[in-house]
């Protein structure tokens, strides 16, 4: 008894029953590739240029956003370093004044 070919709704002619040469009573299922190319839906490419523009705009927007965040972070770090430098100078000046008063 031959097994039934698996149900394939997209391409029902993929499996064909072939008589095996070594045994004349058995049949086997052999995978068969269709000889013709499947039809391509060319209408799917109608919106391709618009999709590329959207992709380019999204990429540019993300790049600008990341650049803005980097600039913001660098300015924040520079301000912190400036405050620390000023605090260090102020403490050094106070220490110098106290040393002069002690002399």
TrEMBL record:
UniProt keyword annotations, A-Z: Membrane, Transmembrane, Transmembrane helix
Pfam families: FAM165 (PF14981)
Ranges annotated as spanning the membrane: 50-72
Coiled-coil blocks: none
Signal peptide: none
Region (Disordered): 83-103
PANTHER family cross-referenced by the UniProt entry: SMALL INTEGRAL MEMBRANE PROTEIN 11 (PTHR35975:SF1), SMALL INTEGRAL MEMBRANE PROTEIN 11A (PTHR35975)
Protein name: Small integral membrane protein 11A
Organism per entry: Ranitomeya imitator (mimic poison frog)
């Amino acid at each position: 008894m031959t097994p039934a070919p698996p149900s394939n709704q997209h391409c029902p002619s993929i499996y064909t029953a072939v008589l095996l040469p070594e045994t004349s009573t058995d049949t086997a299922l052999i995978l068969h590739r269709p000889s013709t190319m499947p039809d391509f839906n060319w209408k799917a490419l109608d919106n391709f240029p618009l999709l590329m523009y959207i992709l380019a705009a999204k990429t540019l927007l993300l790049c600008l956003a990341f650049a803005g965040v980097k600039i913001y972070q660098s300015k924040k770090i520079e301000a912190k370093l400036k405050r620390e430098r000023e605090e260090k100078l102020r403490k050094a000046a106070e220490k110098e004044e106290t040393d002069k008063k002690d002399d």
